[in-house]
């Protein structure tokens, strides 16, 4: 299929949704967006007020509504899709939620791709690396690959990409909490610059930029990351593996979210 004729529906036009919409439009796709809570003034993105108008004739639909709303939006969207349209859930929901969405998709005769976003979207836009599983994963990669979207397809059904994403999150969010706690302790001791330099050296050539991303990203996206770590903790507890570090990471994110809400 020519990229010039590929039609992509984007559900959710927050930061990530807008970046995917603009990037895919710039790569030659027809992009339609739907979000009752955000309005985008972008000539390249057709934003519709009715969900059905966004879904009609779409080759693929990308859900970028956030993990908490993923199932609710799938319930609304899937019955409106034509058979064969790929429904891709890019939200940070857990494996159980992705499997539930896949079940809804099967009943609607729609192939579903469980898609894990492996890096912050603002860094690379629609070129952010993705991991996909499920019966719609190969079809999604075939549609989006020519548009500059890197997708690795992994074996397994819906939920497998989400599981791997949460394992990565366990490490990355835990590293961010460790950096925050270390810098806070060093600040209290009057040694923040010294400890930060030590961290940067240990993390290699990208150390300074990585620490900036970990610190800034934690504060900018604390609520979303709190939800993600909570889902990760549930997965760990279900597996019977120790979860001490993840519990501590969740406590850090809860503290950041509380400070944002209370202004402390």
Q: What does this molecule look like?
A:
This protein is of the alpha/beta class. It has two domains: 3-154, 3-Layer(aba) Sandwich (Rossmann fold), CATH 3.40.50.720; 163-262, N-(1-d-carboxylethyl)-l-norvaline Dehydrogenase, domain 2 (Orthogonal Bundle), CATH 1.10.1040. The protein is 54% helix and 13% strand. It contains eleven helices and eight strands. It has helices spanning 15-26, 51-55, 70-77, 95-107, 121-124, 137-144, 160-188, 192-203, 207-220, 222-239, 244-262; strands spanning 7-11, 30-34, 46-48, 60-63, 86-89, 112-117, 130-133, 151-153. An eight-stranded mixed beta sheet has the order 3-2-1-4-5-6-7-8, with helices on both faces. Helix 1 (15-26) links the parallel strand 1 and strand 2 (30-34). Helix 7 (160-188) runs antiparallel to helix 8 (192-203) and helix 7 crosses helix 11. It starts with 6 loop residues before the first strand and ends with a helix. The mean pLDDT is 93.
